Amino acid sequence: MGAVLEATGYHPTRSGRNHLRILAAATGAPRERVDEMLALVRLEQWGRRKVKTYSLGMRQRLSLACALLGDPEVLVLDEPANGLDPEGIRWLRDLLRSLSAKGRTILISSHVLAEIAQTVDDVAIIQNGRLLAHAPLAELTTQAAGGVRVRTPTAERLRDLLAAAGVGATLVAPDRLAVEGTPERVGEIAAANGVVLHELRAEASLEEVFLELTGAGEEAPP
Amino acid sequence: MTGLLGSEWLKIRTTRTLVWYLLGIVVVVGVTIAGQVTSAPDNVLADVEGFVDVLEAATWASLFALLFGLIGVTGEYRHETITQTFLAVPVRERVVAAKLLTYAGAGLLLGVVALLITVAMALPWLAAKGVDPPLGERSVALFIVGLLGTTALWGALGVAFATVVPNQVAAIVSAFVWLLILETVLAGLAPDVARYSPRSAAGALMRVEGEEALSMWEGAAVTLFYIAGLAVLGSQLVIRRDVT
To answer: Which among A47, B41, B139, B190 is least buried, having the fewest CB atoms inside 10 angstroms?
Structure first.
């Protein structure tokens, strides 16, 4: 099992490569893995430099190299995208995907839900130590939507129009509605009454699912 | 265990700390010898005791070894590398054991370097003064064995003490308060007990203490007892605790 918990725990004047060598010696990982892992996290150029010269994203990648050194079956990552630039985030996603394709199990804990939604297969939502939901991502987002998601500047008006047409709708945010109907029906009613729609989709985002499940929907997120 | 020892030795090699300690030894030992050779009259230098007095400059290495061992443990806590160390080796006693052995080796290295500097500086100096040093004497050989034994044991002693006090500042301050103040007080109040104190035991091992001191073997045994006692105490009570 490998873990990336925090991008700390490095001696400032020791090089990244030497950190990996020390870890390899202690765990009995083959010596060649050190340079392989440096290459994998794209730190070859920086391997011999002191860790104190690294950016947060580079430390994060070094932590990932440490975690992967022993070629673990299970990988635990806590906020792995922390400090990575957009390109780095995409790189990380591809790397995790390729590990997953090789049969590895990867657990990611994160509060950056939009990022997570692009990466994961299954989601577990935990609040105050209680498991609120555990399901494949697609299942969770379609099921939680319970119909259609609408974003419009005149949400209250659209709700009343829908109600008049016999379509149930609830206001989930000042500009958002959850509608019990089909996207086609909502679109037609909106068009007939000249309501501007900014968004119309049949599934909820992971963020919406999370906020609904944790009961924080109506309040401003902390 | 071989891998663990290799890992610990790599930790030492991959920072500059050891280099600074070696430089520190060169400076401190150099200054001490300079003082010894210039202040002692030639006839004292020629006899065995006078010569051992000059070589005693190298005993500084034991203090450096102690500090080095302290930092070997507390440094990992300070930089939080201890988290990864314990993740890699979940049986923490094995880490402590590897560190005890590694820092005994490092202490020995510091002792050898101190001795080489001492001899390299003292011999030409004495030769220039026309003094013939009694190199072949048994007590000179015993002093050298005792010195190297002490620096090795004190490297491990530093590790053992730091397992009880893993905070770097607290460990260094309390070690020095003990060695410089409390031991002196103890020697004044209860000389019979003070014979068994860590500093007196080391003094006995290096044969630099007075008549009432322990024998070399007793000094070594008492020091080993302290190392084992502190390491067991620290491993059972402190090292088990959660890190970061």
So the answer is: B41
CA angle B17, B22, B25 (to 5 degrees): 125
pTM of the predicted structure, to 2 decimals: 0.80
Q: Tokens for B226, please give them.
A: 């302290």
Cβ–Cβ contact B3 with A under 8 A = yes
Q: A116 with A181, same domain?
A: no
Cα–Cα distance for residue pair A168/A162, rounded to 1 Å: 7
Torsion-angle region of residue B80: left (phi > 0), alpha (psi -120 to 50) or beta?
left
Distances (CA, A) of A132 to A122, A128, A135, A150, A204: 13, 10, 10, 25, 17
Domain that holds residue A152: 145-213
- A196 and A159: one domain? yes
Domains contained in chain A, number: 2
Task: For A86-106, write each residue's pLDDT tens digit.
Answer: 888 888 888 888 988 988 898
CB atoms within 10 A of CB A10: 23
Residues of A in contact with B14 (CB under 8 A): 11, 14-15, 18, 21-22
pLDDT digits (tens, 9 = 90+) for B112-163: 999 999 999 888 888 887 777 777 788 888 899 999 999 999 999 999 999 9
The runs of H, that is alpha helices, within A48-182 are: 56-68, 86-101, 113-117, 137-145, 155-164
Cβ pairs bridging A and B (under 8 Å): 53
d(CA B67, CA B42) in angstroms, rounded, equals: 35
Q: Quote the ipTM score.
A: 0.82
Identity of the residue numbered A150: V
Beta carbons within 10 angstroms of residue A57's beta carbon: 18
Q: Residues 6 or more apart from B221 whose CB is under 8 A from it?
A: none
Shortest Cα distance, chain A CAs vs residue B13, angstroms: 9
**SS3 state at B238:** coil
